[in-house]
Amino acid sequence: KRERDIFGENLFIFFFLFYTLHFHFFSDSREESPHPPPQVMAMVKDKDQHHNNKDKKLLVGVIWNFSAELKLTFMALLVLCTLATLLPFMPSSFSLSTSDFRFCISRFASAVPPLNTTTTVEESSSSSSSSSPTTEEKVDRVLDNGVIKRTFTGYGSAAYNFVSMSAYRGGVNSFAVIGLSSKPLHVYGHPSYRCEWVSSDPTQDPISTTGSKILTDWGYGRIYTTVVVNCTFSSLSAVNPQNSGGNLILHATTGDPSLNLTDSIPVLTESPNSVDFDLYNSTTKKKKKYDYLYCGSSLYGNLSPQRVREWIAYHVRFFGGRSHFVLHDAGGIHEEVLEVLKPWIELGRVTLHDIRDQERFDGYYHNQFMVVNDCLHRYRFMAKWMFFFDVDEFVYVPAKETISSVMESLEGYSQFTIEQMPMSSRICYSGDGPARTYRKWGIEKLAYRDVKKVPRRDRKYAVQPENVFATGVHMSQNLQGRTYHKAESKIRYFHYHGSISQRREPCRYLFNDSKLVFENTPYVLDTTIRDVGLAVKTFELRTIGNRLLRTRQ
Q1: Inter-axis angle of helices 2-26 and 67-86, nearest 10
Q2: What is the pTM of this model?
Q3: Tens of pLDDT along 195-227?
Q4: Which of 46, 57, 177, 217 has its CA 20 to 30 A from that of 498?
């Protein structure tokens, strides 16, 4: 009842004001104004009467000229006040919120054809592309010290829809795009990818295909998860067969049912005559540049220069002259470690990638899944075998074998796993005497192996990369061909867990026993790696000289 009374009062007041103003301003202004009484006229001078009549006529004239606009204004005020009065009587289920206005705006924006992307909200996508750095600032470049400086470009907003790291040709009609994407988006949403090839030849029409996404991190992702998008144009015998060049564009769609956004991302540019199609032809296989290529995970933390020195010298000798090592600096290659690597970089045996910019995107262990997949596809057609293990692990084959003979025996498999031999990183063998022990390399004195029985230990692996579409840290689950898991008699790796991140003398305890129990863990003396220590040091001295003799822990 009270609301009805307020409603009636408001309507009465408004209509009274409206008709009063209407009568006052919009009556026929052309009629003569009534003459004042004679008594008043006698009190006012003729000059004042003349000016008052002139001002009044001027005011009436102005109002008369704008009478239509004033009527429209007062009618609008009447409608708004009426709505404000009626709102309390409307049902509670009727409401307007910011989300309703946002939905209306997005529906309107989707009707506008985009210029450079298929993003539903065109304004945000264009602003992001306009604010992005120039192309010159975004390309990979080689620094003066031989390090390849890598770049990472985010597209989208908030947790980016897609963070592009790289894209590579995977065959005559296929490509692989490697990057990151929002982890919740892939867990709770339905994102999809479409690949489009736009030829540099204006007579050729663009072609597109559905991209197949591969999530490689086994559910370990954090804010971001690693995504490998396979773009196979199966309807064509070859993409860019005339070698005229072109661009690969990835259309990444969020799959959000309420606001489905698509970002169009140029991920790869091929210059004219830049593709060697013989590289992908199975009938005219070229000899690989490398027999063995090492793909390292992200290196971070305060790494020990001496441990890195031992690791690289050991494996350069182990894998031989037709091998190469790709390392990824996520903050662990400080100046002292770089001094250890420089001689090998100068010899062309090591390539170092600076990937510190990826720290902006919170993924599992410094985005190591993305890093190893980039390495896989970057060098996929350059190496016969590709190894994946860490810089505190040392691969070994029995004395009667060589790495070449072992790999020959495993050629029928696309992948094989390597069994772990866990070594203590605190207990040292003192058979040479305490004084001489501290002067030896870590691999010479850390000689006690953990023999506690456990259900399983982590393994590392090697693959023939041409048969692999995506990879992981401990093995690949996306490949064609067979995997071999019983190669322990042929090849193993010794794991000195945690030793790489200790900037001090590793020996905490010295023993001279063949068997012992330390902190409820049984150990046995294993001199497998120790026995080759002298040969490794001699190899380093002959290969790069004495440049690293004063390397510190």
Answers
A1: 180
A2: 0.73
A3: 999 999 999 999 999 999 999 987 787 899 999
A4: 217
